[in-house]
Amino acid sequence: MRTRSATVAALMAAGIALAPGTALAAPTPTPSPGATTVTKAGTTFLSATPVAAGQPVRVGASTGEYLYWSFPAAAGETHEITATVALAEDRTGTSTWTVEVFDGLRRRQACTAGAQTPTADVSARTVAIGCTLRRVRPWAEPWSADPLPGTYYVRLSVVDVPEPDLGRPIDVDLLISASGDSGSAPEDGRLEAPLVPPTDAGAVLSTEPTVAPVEEDDHGWNIDLTGWLPEAGSRWIWTTAGGVLAAVAGVVGFALTRRPRRVRV
C-alpha cells in the first residue's frame, strides 16, 4: 500500500510538472519550406497583396496604416492568422491592435480563437495578434454568413493609439496557415463558383456612334441646325406656343371690348 501510494503520488507530481510544458509546447504555425517571403502589403481591398497559405510576410509600415492581404480558401480548410508587430521604443502610451478577416463579399468573419484585439503597454516592444477562422463550408444558405470557398482578405490595423504615436515605424511579421482536408464536402452540396464581389460592368460599344451631318454655307462656316434646335416635345416649344396664343387672345379680346369714340359736331 505504501509503495502504491508513493507511485500514485509520483505520477501525479509528474503530471503536474508536465502540464505546463505540454501547454507551452503546443504546435504553432510554421512557414512552408522554400516559401518566398512577401515584403508588401496593400492599403485597400482592391490593392490587397496576394499571399498563399504557409507563405511568410514581413513588411515595414507606420502606426495608423491599414495593411491588407488576400489568400484563397477551399472547402474543408481551417485557417489561422498569426501576426507579430514590433513597436517603436519611443512611444508615449498604450496601443490596441486588431486583425480582421473578410470574405469575398466583404463580410467580416468571426474568429473562434486567438488574441484578435490585444493591447500593448507603453513598455512593450512587440504585440502578438491571432485569429482562427471557422472551417470553410462547401455550401451555405444565401442569408447566412458562413465561410465559403473563395478569396479572403486580412486587415491589420491599430484601433486605439495616442495621437503623438501615429506615424511611428513598425515591423509586421504575418503568417496564414491552413489545416484540414481541402476539397472535402461532408455536407450534401457544394458551391458552384467562388465568392466574388458583385460587379455591374458597362457594355462595350461595337459600332461607332452616328454623327449628325453638318452643312457648310457659302463663306465656309459650319452650320449645324440640329445642335441648338429644341426637340418637338421640349418645354420650350410648348412655352413659346402658349405665349403666342395668349398674345393673340389678348389682342382679339381688346378689339371686341373696345368702345368706338364719339365724334362731336
UniProtKB/TrEMBL annotation:
Organism the protein comes from: Micromonospora craniellae
Membrane-traversing stretches: 236-256
Keyword annotations from UniProtKB, A to Z: Membrane, Signal, Transmembrane, Transmembrane helix
Signal sequence residues: 1-25
Transmembrane keyword on record: yes
Top-level taxonomic group: Bacteria
This protein's name: Peptidase
